[in-house]
Amino acid sequence: MALTSSSTYADAVAQYNDNLLWDGDVTKAKAALESVRWIIINRHKITKTDHREVEFEINAMMDEKKRIETYLDGADTTSRPRSSFVRGVMNYD
């Protein structure tokens, strides 16, 4: 599920929860990172629902974002070039 500007907080949390086991899975890591970024940008500092008050700790979300990005830097090969360009030499054999 791709989060958009019309996505809700519940959508982002559901996507994050669906991809909690992102370590070792690039696809899940990308989905988790997307949801973490959405939550960081769109969250309210304090949310009140059903007579409960939840205060978000931004540092925990930023730490999770960094962990996922670090994993993807090493594991995601789709954003890397397949091979580097080398100078070709004609073989006359």
- N-to-C order of helices and strands: HHEEH
Assembly annotation: single chain
Average the pLDDT over all residues and give the rounded result: 83
Largest sheet: 2 strands, antiparallel
Number of strands: 2
The low-pLDDT segments are: none
Shape descriptor = elongated
- Strand content of the residues, in percent? 5-15%
Q: Output the radius of gyration.
A: 20 Å
Strand ordering within the main sheet: 1-2
Q: What percentage of residues falls in helices of 4 or more residues?
A: 40-55%
Taking the alpha carbons of the first and last residues, their distance comes to: 54 Å
Q: What is the tally of helical segments? A: 3
Name the structural class: mainly alpha
Quick summary:
The protein is mainly alpha-helical and 93 residues long. It is built from three helices and two strands. A two-stranded antiparallel sheet has the order 1-2.
How would you describe this protein?
This protein is mainly alpha-helical. It has a domain at 24-75. It is 48% helix and 9% strand. The chain is built from three helices and two strands, in the order H-H-E-E-H. It has a two-stranded antiparallel sheet with strand order 1-2. Strand 1 (46-49) and strand 2 (52-55) form a beta hairpin. Helix 1 (9-18) packs antiparallel against helix 2 and helix 2 (26-42) runs antiparallel to helix 3. The longest helix is centred in the C-terminal third of the chain and has 18 residues, at 58-75. It is elongated and about 80 Å long. The chain starts with 8 loop residues before the first helix and ends in an 18-residue tail after the last helix.
